[in-house]
Amino acid sequence: MQRTDKSAAFSFPDTFTPGEQTLQDHVTVVASDGVDLAVRIYEPKEEQTDSHSHSNDKTVLVFYHGGGAHSGAGYQYLAKGLAENFGLTVYLPDLRGHGKSDGPKGDALSKEQVWRDVDTVLEFVAKPDAKIFLGGHSSGGGLVVNYATAWKERTTSVDIKGYVLVSPELGYKSETARPGRIDFAKVNICAFIANGIFGILGHSRAVKFNYPPEILEDDGMVGFNTVNMANAITPETPREQMQGMCANVGRRPTGLWIGSEDELFIPEKVADFVPNEDGNVGQVLPGKTHLDILVGVHEHIGRWIT
Fold it and tell me: Hey, what domains does the chain have and what are their CATH numbers?
């Protein structure tokens, strides 16, 4: 796919082939405010855990989808690959208001409530001796960065062993946007400014995703995010936040992968946010775009985790 072909933005037809990957049914986890959150679970077969004793079912990855998407929008490739080839158990949550999760579309009570939802999911997946990694793709990666560095009121004592970021959206302050990039999202800056001053526009639609119409026919997809949701998944000080994550060397390493043909970001600039030292990895994958990186990236994630 050529980046200049805006009608073919993000290789949707190539990446999300209906029926090619059977989706797991979702289970329901109840958020702290009573909203039902959907989570799909991909587990290795018993013979796979036997052959991957170094990872087995004690190693878990909780992985969040990108902006406006949901757990069934291509993320099954990553989850099935890690379960089948590396013996990991992968949990794919739907953000509130996305996919099969309840709540107003694309909205949240506050950014803190979204981070509190991550607490709830981590408590759900926690098992004795579990080795838990937390990750996300695109804006899901931004959510993970915020959760790891900005959320100071955690309600869970679950210990996260490391972070997995795939083509992460680190926000406009990261200065990683590709020049002439596809106009994937239109941002209403005034809504953010007004909400910051008056605190009354949190539920206003502030980010419109320019998904192709046929993609939005999937009722799990969301065409916009409100101020609250956007603030939850967008790092405010990306450079400092990423430095804080990677400073926890040896105990909570960070792995980051992005495609060389990513339509949204300058891959080298994004990868440079994670130093290749002390267990951290920042890697550009040749030929991969923003979405088709979901097919095959499990090989890199699996080797890094195990």
Answer: 6-305 (3.40.50.1820)
CA atoms within 13 A on the CB side of 96: 30
Structure token pair of residue 298: 């499990």
pTM of the predicted model as reported, rounded to 2 decimal places:
0.91
Task: Measure CA of the first residue to CA of the last residue in the chain; give whole Å.
Answer: 33
- Tens of pLDDT along 44-102? 987 554 444 444 558 999 999 999 999 999 999 999 999 999 999 999 999 999 999 99
pLDDT digits (tens, 9 = 90+) for 16-54: 544 445 789 999 999 999 999 999 999 998 755 444 444
List the structure tokens of 4: 């200049």
Closest listed residue to residue 70, CA positions, set 236, 220, 281, 246: 220
